[in-house]
Amino acid sequence: MKAPLFIILVTLCVGGAFAACGPKKPPVEPEPTEAPEDAGPPVDAAPPPTLYDKLGGKDGVAGIVDSFVADITTDKVVNKFFPKSKKLDHFKQMLADQICHEAGGPCTYTGKSMKEAHKGMGITDVQFAAVIQDLTLALEEKNVSKEDTQALLGKLGAMQDDIVEKKTQKK
Description:
By secondary structure, this protein is mainly α. The chain has a domain of 113 residues: Globin-like (Orthogonal Bundle), CATH 1.10.490.10. It contains eight helices and no strands. Helix 3 crosses helix 4. The longest helix has 17 residues. The protein starts with a helix and ends in an 8-residue tail after the last helix.
C-alpha cells in the first residue's frame, strides 16, 4: 500500500526535513554592538589634520617663511644676523624644512643642529625673543590661529637653550 503524498509531506515537515513547511520565522536581526571605549576612531575615518596641514602644507609654510624673513631682515634687534645674500635663500629653505618637520609634515630637516648653527653668534635672550616676535607676526599675517601659533612656537621655543649663548640679565 502506498502512503498518500499528503502523509509523506506532513511527516517530513514535522520531522523538519523541509524548511519551507510550517510557519516562517522572521529573520533574526543582529544586535547592535558597541565599540569598546578605547577602540579609537573607526578604521575608515580620516586622521586628524597635522599642524603642518593647518599651516597650509608646503605652500603655507613657504608663505610663513617669506613673511618671517621679510620681518627679521628689517628688525633692528636681529637683522645683523640675516644679511641679504644667497645664504638667506639657504636659511629660508632650512627653516621651511624645519617648520615642516616640527609641524608633522613630510619633510626632514637636514641642517645643522641648533647649537652648531648658532655657535659663536653670541645670541641673547632679547634677540631670541625678537625672532619669536617676528615669527608670531608672520603667523598672524598668514591668519594662523592662535592655537596653532602657540603649538608651533612651543616646538621652536624649546630650542632656545641651544640657540642663546648670552643670557640677558634682568634688572
